[in-house]
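To assess whether the prediction recovers the assembly geometry, we first specified each molecular entity separately, as shown.
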Amino acid sequence: MTSTLIEQNVTPTSSNWPSWFVAEQKTALADYEQSPTPTRRHEAWRFANLKPLDLSTFVDATPVSAEGRLINSSTGLGEFSAKMVFGNNALLHKSAQSLPEGVIFESLESAATNHADLFRKYFMAQPAALGSSKYTALHKARVATGAFLYVPANTSVTLPIEIFHWAEGNNASIFPHTLIVCGENSSVTVLDYFKSADKLTALACGVNDLHLEKGSRLTYIAVQDWSTTTTAFHINSTNVDANAKCTALIANFGGGFVRGESLSRLIGEGSRSEMYSINPVEGTREIDQRTLQDHIAPHATSDLLYLNALDDRSRTIFAGLIKVEPGAQGTDAYQKVRNLILSDDADPNSMPGLEILNDEVRCTHGATNGPVSEDELFYMQARGIPRDKARRLVVNGFFNSLLERIEVTPVRAHLSTLLAKRLSVG
Amino acid sequence: MSLNIQNLHANIGEREILKGLNLEIPKGQIHAIMGKNGSGKSTLAKVMAGHPDYEVTAGEVTLDGLNLFEMAEPDERARAGLFVAFQYPMEIPGVTIANFIRAAVQARLPKGEELDAVEYYELLYKKMELLKIPRNFTSRAVNEGFSGGEKKRCEILQMAMLNPVYCILDETDSGLDIDALKIVSEGVNAMRSPERGMLVITHYQRLLDYIVPDVVHVMVDGRIVLSGDKSLALKLEANGYDWVEKEVLQQA
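The predicted structure of the complete assembly is given in tokenized form:
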């Protein structure tokens, strides 16, 4: 059965795109239609809840009605170097205060025209490897705009760049996209926010691709705060070349069903990829995350730490694989998921994994489940803090210990504030 | 007005630790409890605080007439004015000292009232200065990686910030070198007040050179068996606990 999404098959912004891309979108749509809907027999969808994959109720997003309000609500850090605000598949606002010369920060469709070579080299260059190729095909078929950032070699963007993606309206489907390319020895910090303008249900099918050339440094923070009934796919691929370092943190504060896929490819010697995620989940929300640390080059390191705090009847799935290719001697890879269990009805599923094709490596992986320590709660209560607040403080502390790994101080402080607000402990 | 403990019996599991303990600490006084390891001193502190591992089987405790055991949750007792400085304070990863104490102060405000952050930090820094705690301490996680001395100073800092009516200090001197002991004692002495009663639990007389008690009690096997003025502590130091036990046995 085809979904409404396909039947509508309109490409309202196609005029903004070069014709070769419009042609590729047609192919992508055919791919989407022809790809079977995943089943649990597929390893990449083990334990997955397949119900949210019925996308038939979602419709094309109409232009936002509250444009001014959304732009005004798109505030993050006090100081930033540039900002883009998207709402329902359209660019609403762009400002660039202090970008160094040569930095390209444009909408995706204008980059496709103005910087066609760069765009063609990097746009969705890495096929989805973790199960969601059907949904990346849908994304490609329907993407209307997005953020394109290119930092040229030897250029440091001092202040962070912020990107906001808004969803508005009932059953609106949106396709956020962020593409970041860091030239050799460049450095930049990007915050990518995903927000709902209302409490209504939406479909978000997003892609974020990060490319780090030799010696570059990228700190990428995704703050996902969709409405609690939104279905969201967030598919990432990260390529890290020699001696480059990527620190990526995904905070899933919202969403009813969230499927996240993160692929880090360590393609150059001495590269490093840090993959972090914090997931406070409650109610019947589900966070389904699949990761791959693909060590292709020697002497690279990857460090994955995912933290879930599960309350009520919430559910998490973590399936991660460290793959060490034959040539990747001297690999140092770490993978850990920690589940803080706040309710007997919560359902954490962890599947850490290793596939090692080289002997000279150091890999550790593991998953732990544990409740909030009664001793910690007692100590806090003994200071007069009510039990429920104490519990939320412990959860806040659990996530905060990961935030400490974010080296950019104002970003860390900002995330800490957002987290405290999210957990009502501020 | 007093902290009044009457005939307190408490178990951990099947084992009775407190076996009919009587003790009254009037406001304005500092009392000390001394006793050997295993006499039940720390159990008393934890039972008062409401630790879930202990079961009170008999007896009554009142806080200026308020029935302590009617307050089931430890946080109610704390907000009613009781403070216990623990011998082994818990580590709470990721929760900073500043946020922890702030949450505790906030919990004492009437519903809907927000803590004034500027005033809070002014007071916090003032109390930290008194305890010779460096300012960057506030951004460290509660007790995580603290030395023994830092943990105890952190307990006293909390006590100073929360302004309790009755304080129980459980072996606050353990793990402290002489300099740290002096600083902690100064912090405690600064809180001496006609409006506050304190109970200092210790194994050694040394602490009582710095925090001079009004009354010294000796605890043996879950009961107070002997009480006297501060000279009793010196006598215990000189003669050990054995003579007390003999004396108690003779009386029995």
